[in-house]
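quick one before i forget lol
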Amino acid sequence: MKPARMIRRLDGFGRIVLPEALRAQLGIEEGAELEFYSSGDAIVLSRFMRGCVFCGLPRRIIMFRGQHVCKNCIMEMLDHAAEKHSPNMSVEASIK
């Protein structure tokens, strides 16, 4: 897909409006977090993906008590908890 060239004016507060069509195309909804950085003379804007509070990876994230935690770290915590309570008990057996 050829990128569309769009020109927008910066307002007095330094804001720009992302066109609705572009937001829809990229799946950016109201309230979405975006990150931006400079690269040479360009500004790069992308969706922000929060990473796991433990490992930092931005995949398979769920919210737990206000924190972003990945499913891999959850499984590690369950394994660790099962080992502490019963060295011979697996995670599956401990949650049944």
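fyi The mean pLDDT is 84.
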